[in-house]
């Protein structure tokens, strides 16, 4: 299967600063990389995703970059706000294993007002 | 669309009792996933179905766990007999199939005393 590693496990930033979360994956055949945000007491929700034929994708304050050669992808949140505080998960799909997600271990982000 | 529906939202039971968790996926989605989330182990995939057929159940912890999907709009996850170490939040997710977004339900928080 696929092995996804995520760092850091916890991250604190001042409101207005940027936050970066990084993930690596092991199988170069993985082709879909979503990022999920999980607020307390809720299920994970997709915030952005990227496919292997794209190097970067942006949606307002959120961006994801993918380096296929190095097999890593990163989530960038700019101008952080207190409501960005949550746990963020990266994931990868390896087509040979079906449609299952291989999740990272999560990053707890705290934005300090 | 109502999203993925899970019931019950909370379940408290005594060790040895049977527990049944229920999930209604989003209409038109043909893949369904059951996850377990704990602080120690993070998000674990238990089993997933494509077109109501179980594809990979290698994540099911032991024979006490079983899952069914009798039709495209309903799935159950059963634990019999339950044990305190089964205490966790159980999520159901669905997708259209292929490498694409999974939509998570709100989860069922299970406590086994």
Oligomer status: heterodimer
Give the SSE string of chain A. EEEEEEEEEEE
Structural class of the secondary elements of chain A?
Answer: mainly beta
| Count of β-strands of chain B | 11
Helix content of chain A: under 10%
Strand content of chain A: over 45%
Report the uncertain regions of chain B: none
- Strand tally of chain A: 11
Helix content of chain B: under 10%
Descriptive account of the structure:
The complex is a heterodimer of chains A (113) and B (113). Helices cover 0% and strands 56% of the residues of chain A. Chain A has 113 residues and is an all-beta fold. In chain A, strands 2, 4, 5, 9, 10 and 11 form a six-stranded mixed sheet that branches. Chain A has a five-stranded antiparallel sheet with strand order 1-3-8-7-6, with no helix packed on it. Chain A is globular, with a radius of gyration of 14 Å. Chain B has strands at 5-7, 10-13, 19-24, 31-38, 42-50, 53-56, 65-71, 74-79, 88-95, 103-104, 108-112. Chain B contains no helices and eleven strands. Chain B has 113 residues and is an all-beta fold. The termini of chain B are far apart. In chain B, a hairpin with a 3-residue loop joins strand 4 (31-38) and strand 5 (42-50).
Furnish the topology, listing elements before pairings.
The complex is a heterodimer of chains A (113) and B (113).
Chain A: E1 4-7, E2 10-14, E3 19-25, E4 32-38, E5 45-51, E6 56-59, E7 62-67, E8 72-77, E9 86-93, E10 101-103, E11 107-112
Parallel strand pairs in A: 2-11
Antiparallel strand pairs in A: 1-3, 3-8, 4-5, 4-9, 6-7, 7-8, 9-10, 9-11
Chain B: E1 5-7, E2 10-13, E3 19-24, E4 31-38, E5 42-50, E6 53-56, E7 65-71, E8 74-79, E9 88-95, E10 103-104, E11 108-112
């Amino acid at each position: 299967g696929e092995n996804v590693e995520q760092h850091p496990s916890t991250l604190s930033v001042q409101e207005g600063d940027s936050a970066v979360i990084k993930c690596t994956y092991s199988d170069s055949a993985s082709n879909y990389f979503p990022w999920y945000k999980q607020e307390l007491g809720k299920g994970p929700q997709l915030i952005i995703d990227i496919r292997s034929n794209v190097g970067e994708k942006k949606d307002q304050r959120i961006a994801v970059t993918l380096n296929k050669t190095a097999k890593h992808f990163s989530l960038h949140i700019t101008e952080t706000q207190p409501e960005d505080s949550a746990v963020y998960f990266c994931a990868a799909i390896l087509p040979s294993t079906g449609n299952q997600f291989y999740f990272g271990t999560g990053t707890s982000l705290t934005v300090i007002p | 669309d109502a999203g993925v529906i899970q019931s019950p939202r909370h379940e408290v039971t005594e060790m040895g009792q049977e527990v049944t968790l229920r999930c209604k996926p989003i209409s038109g989605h043909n893949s369904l996933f059951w996850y377990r989330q704990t602080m120690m182990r993070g998000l674990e995939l238990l089993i997933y179905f494509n077109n109501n057929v179980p594809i990979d159940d290698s994540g099911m912890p032991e024979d006490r766990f079983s899952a069914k999907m009798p039709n495209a709009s309903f799935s159950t996850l059963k634990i019999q007999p339950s044990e305190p170490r089964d205490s966790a939040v159980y999520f159901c997710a669905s997708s259209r199939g292929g490498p694409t977004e999974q939509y998570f339900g709100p989860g069922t928080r299970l406590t086994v005393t």
